[in-house]
Design brief:
The protein has about 120 residues and is mostly beta strands. The protein contains no helices and eleven strands.
């Protein structure tokens, strides 16, 4: 049974940092692209980036450059999203998603989703 479990969401102060983790199970993730998305209230789901577990190639939204970073943690077998210098606009539910093959920016291209983890940035 394919599962993606996100963790690490929290209430954080403006300018703070947070590391989210996505733990895949029930499938051989080595052949998948695993992505992070977020959805703020009243807004569409937004792709933040995706890592190919097969070759480690990474796509990441340019507007997040310098603040967000996606990486694979082989020791924990997770895909992490490190967020720094958090802004109020980063408040959202953060999801990881997986799809066989390569990465994509489009949520509709992903079959498997986690339940999401809430990140709230307060001043």
């Amino acid at each position: 049974q394919v599962q993606l479990v996100e963790s690490g969401g929290d209430l954080v102060q403006l300018g703070g940092s947070l590391r989210l983790s996505c733990a895949p199970s029930g499938f051989n993730s080595d052949f998948y692209g695993i992505a992070w998305f977020r959805q703020a209230p009243g807004k569409e789901r937004e792709g933040l980036g995706c890592i190919s577990m097969r070759d480690g190639s990474l796509i990441q939204r340019g507007s997040m450059a310098g603040r967000f970073a996606i990486s694979r943690n082989r020791a924990k077998d997770t895909v992490d999203l490190l967020m720094t210098n958090l802004e109020r606009e980063d408040t959202a539910v953060y999801y990881c998603a997986a799809e066989s093959g390569s990465c994509s920016w489009s949520a509709s291209d992903f079959t498997f989703w986690g339940q999401g983890t809430q990140v709230t940035v307060s001043s």
